[in-house]
């Protein structure tokens, strides 16, 4: 699943610690969840609005099904940014719970200053957790074709600041970054619009965080 791969991309494959700011991860996961529905043909994006595709057949996955039902239930068509904002609130927990349920992660609770509890989702299998980074990094370094799932995933990495993890070991970083730009130029308009809104949301959130 697209959101599962982005979750893995956004976390250390051993400790489960976030590689980016939590808000950036939240926006990225929200976009990945919408991306799952978009690439499955369950929704359409036109003029920055999210539409239900017809016939309205819900996806089999429980998380995707729940989000699809929420979109269907809305009488008003909402903007991409509205849905990103909505899903960024609990999308992280939804994806994390899906990974735990499917045996890919385990919850680890930590206590700080005897008061605050923090939950980390530790990968069960390091190779599986590392695979999205390895796969995308290899593709960018070698400039090999990527399928639309991975191109969109690379776009999410670029939108959230995770692209540095994909090119940091490249012999020629400029080449790898240039190839990433080329790949993103091939993204279909609806997905490109979703990435653009994600990039803007992350940028605004990080500016607000530092002011």
Automatic annotation (TrEMBL):
InterPro entries: GPP34-like (IPR008628), GPP34-like_sf (IPR038261). It is found in: Golgi apparatus membrane. Coiled coil: none annotated. It is a peripheral membrane protein. GO terms for cellular component: cytoplasm; endomembrane system. It comes from the Bacteria. This is GPP34 family phosphoprotein. One of its GO terms (molecular function) is phosphatidylinositol-4-phosphate binding. It comes from Phytohabitans rumicis.
């Amino acid at each position: 699943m697209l959101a599962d791969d982005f979750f893995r991309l956004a976390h250390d494959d051993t400790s489960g610690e976030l590689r980016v700011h939590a808000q950036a991860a939240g926006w990225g996961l929200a976009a990945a969840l919408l991306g799952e529905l978009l690439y499955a043909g369950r929704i359409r994006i036109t003029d920055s609005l999210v539409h239900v595709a017809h016939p309205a057949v819900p996806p089999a996955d429980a998380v995707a099904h729940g989000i699809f039902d929420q979109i269907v239930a809305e009488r008003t068509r909402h903007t991409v940014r509205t849905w990103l904002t909505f899903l960024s609130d609990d999308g992280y927990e939804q994806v994390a719970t899906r990974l735990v349920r499917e045996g890919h992660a385990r919850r680890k609770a930590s206590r700080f200053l005897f008061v605050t509890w923090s939950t980390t989702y530790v990968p069960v299998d390091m190779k599986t957790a590392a695979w999205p980074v390895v796969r995308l990094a290899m593709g960018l370094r070698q400039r090999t074709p990527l399928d639309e799932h991975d191109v969109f995933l690379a776009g999410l990495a670029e939108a959230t600041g995770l692209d540095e993890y994909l090119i940091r070991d490249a012999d020629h970083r400029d080449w790898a970054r240039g190839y990433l730009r080329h790949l993103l130029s091939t993204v279909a308009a609806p997905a490109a619009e979703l990435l653009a809104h994600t990039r803007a949301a992350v940028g605004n959130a990080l500016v607000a965080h530092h002011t």
